[in-house]
Structures are given as C-alpha cells and as structure tokens.
Amino acid sequence: MRDITLCHPRLQQLAARWIQACAAQGIIVGIAETLRTVEEQEALYAQGRTKPGQIVTNARGTSYRSQHQWGIAFDFFLMMDVDGDGKTSDDSYNDNTGLFERAAAVAKSLGLAWGGDWSSLVDKPHLYLPDWGSTPTQLIQTYGSPEAFMRTWAPAVGWVRTGIGYWYRRTDGSYPANQWCVINHHWYLFNPDGYMCTGWHRWDGRVCDPADGAGDWYFLDNTLNGPLEGACWHTRDNGAQEIWEVDLADQI
C-alpha cells in the first residue's frame, strides 16, 4: 500500500514535513510502501526463499515482525533524473550520488530513524518512528497485534508519552512544534520535533547555560514524570522561585 494516511498519525505529520524539507534541499522524494497486511508481508518474506528474487526481509507476516504491519514505517523513492538521461522512472532507487543518505539525514533531523543504519539487511529506502525501537518486539509484547495498537490511535486531546518524551495532541490530531504554548495555565516549550522541553532554555528555544550571562533564560521543570514536568518556572518579587501559573486561556 502507498497510502500514508493508513499509518500512525505522528508518522503522517513527520512524513509531510520531511517531504517539504527534502524539496527545500533539492531532493524530490515520493512515498512507496506504507502499511502492509499479513499476506503482503508473507509474500515479501517468500521472495528469495520459496519464490524467485532476492531476499528483501527477514520479517514474517504471520508473526507481525515488520514495522510496516504496525503502521510506523514507510519506504521512499526518488522522483529525480539522477543519471541525467532525461528520465526519472529508472532512478527511483539510484543512490550513486548519495541522495538516500541525504534524504535520511533530513528525516533523522525531524526525529525519524533510518533502515540504512541497520547492520543486517540494510534498508536505505526505509524510514520509521523510533519510539518503540528498531524492531516491533516492544509493540508485540505490549499490544499483541497491529489492530490492538491501531485502536490507540484515536485522536484524544492531551499529553502523549513515547520513548522519546512528551508531545501534545491537539483536537485535530496535530501537535505544537518549535513554539511556546499555554496549557492548563502553565507555559511549555516544544522543540522542532514537537517534544516538550525541560531544563534551561532561551525564549527562542535554544538550550542555554544560565551561567553564560547572555540574554534571558527560562527553566522548564525537569522532574521526571512529575505532575508539572516541562512547566516553566519564574522568580517572584521576593526572590523565591516557583512554577509559573498564568491567568491565560490555553494557547496551543
């Protein structure tokens, strides 16, 4: 399947940002494989084993061992005339000029992980959400089946915790990124990948050392799993410090 809307909502959003970011660097990409059924994965597994062709995967469909079955990965291809022959159709997977590495670097800067970094069956066209590791083992142990996992994708509003950190799901399923927001009367800062920041930061989001003496700095509560982790602190008139509570409606 090539429909990215069948994949995890967060992967959909990152894929859209990735395509735009690649285009800004002159790399034109398209999405190939997205979600796979058990039958589709089994057919790929048979290739090079019981069917003609080269082995392209070690993941059995019946054991849910492919990230594609869980909707957390997609494969991409190039939509460019790499070899200069006036055609793009013969260059979909032409990596002679290192375009896959460049596209992967863009993806990793957005928080995705790359199959080209794998040591076994290197998969350069493969990008995935790293929240559950490089294999579906954690997903299998937690949910048992892709269907059970997908039922958790309902766009409920609020904080979502992954293996990387917290992000905030809006009512439309999107999330704030690279901005400050007021949530439940507290200020929070989100990095460019959409994850909540903690520790010392400047107003523009750069991590800073308050001892450097340059410009304003803000401390975001770093109490791991605390009730107000990520909330901004401030200093009262008497010099005492506390988590900042503001009389403002949510600005997300």
Task: Please characterize this protein's 3D structure.
This is M15 family peptidase. Residues 61-127 form the Peptidase M15C domain. With 252 residues, the chain is α+β, with helices and mostly antiparallel strands. It folds into 2 domains: 4-153, Muramoyl-pentapeptide Carboxypeptidase, domain 2 (2-Layer Sandwich), CATH 3.30.1380.10; 165-243, Cholin Binding (left handed beta-beta-3-solenoid), CATH 2.10.270.10. The chain has 5 helices and 12 strands. The protein has helices spanning 9-24, 38-46, 99-109, 137-143, 146-150, and strands at residues 29-31, 73-78, 113-114, 126-128, 158-161, 166-169, 179-183, 186-190, 199-201, 218-220, 233-235, 241-243. The strands form 5 sheets. A 4-stranded antiparallel beta sheet has the order 1-2-4-3, covered by helices on one side. Strands 5-6 form a two-stranded antiparallel ribbon. A two-stranded antiparallel sheet has the order 7-8. Strand 7 and strand 8 form a beta hairpin. Helix 1 crosses helix 3.
